[in-house]
Amino acid sequence: MATRRPTHNKSPKQPPQPAAVDDVAGTEAEHEGHEGAVRLLEAAVEPVARAMGFEVVLIEWAGGRGGRIARVYLDHPNGVSLDDCSRMSGVLSNALDAAEADPETPELTALLSLPYTLEVSSPGVDRPLARLSHFARHVGGRAVVRTFHPLAGQGSADQRTFHGRIVGTEVDAADPADDRRGTVLLRSLDSDTIYKISLADIRRANLVYSPPSTGGHG
């Protein structure tokens, strides 16, 4: 049975910094491998989290010298407290134990056969954006989008980081129901340029927190 050290030091009141991009996936080939692992983990934990009233915003499967880490970001209409993270860590750990022992899921069993750390967190104010619906939900918000490679005809020749405001989304014509496919429309912060970025090209994307303005009285 895999060793898990659930960590709960990521308080929703003090949201964690987004994981370093290189910690998640360094190249498109590595990203594909991570995506395969994430799909397996999602199949095991999403139904359980949904039954408990939580949305799985993002799962990251990261590995390196510090060991393998499964990061699960959860959201809830009423917010996610530290106690929620602690409680759901135990729930999801049990779900992964059950999935690991299921003979019908040999790929997941192989994935979880070596030690890893399970981390459960709120998405924080700089919440990750991984699906088309995430971007659609936050139209009007500022975001930073990092791509695997420069995008032809968009930005400078070597630009891989795009800062802007989300102004819309477009579903994928070949499969409009697939929330993992489609295009994000991002307006540059310093011009009227609209970047059209396919989800397939996105390495990492996060909202940029803007504190509410406070009007003075004079």
Strand order of the largest sheet: 7-6-5-4-8
| Mean of residue pLDDT values | 84
- CATH architecture assignment name of the largest domain: 2-Layer Sandwich
CATH superfamily of the largest domain: RimP-like superfamily, N-terminal
**What is the CATH first-level class name of the largest domain?**
Alpha Beta
The portion of residues forming beta strands comes to: 15-25%
Main sheet attributes: strand count, strand direction, barrel closure: 5 strands, antiparallel
The radius of gyration computed from the alpha-carbon positions, rounded to a whole number of angstroms, is 18 Å
According to CATH, the fold-level topology of the largest domain is: GMP Synthetase, Chain A, domain 3
Structural domain count: 2
Could you list the spans in which at least 5 consecutive residues all have pLDDT below 50? Answer: 1-25
Estimate the helix proportion, in percent.
25-40%
Count of individual beta strands = 8
What series of H and E elements makes up the topology? HHEEHHEHEEEEE
Distance from N terminus to C terminus (CA atoms, Å) equals 65 Å
What characteristic shape results from the CA principal axes?
Answer: globular
Q: How many separate helices?
A: 5
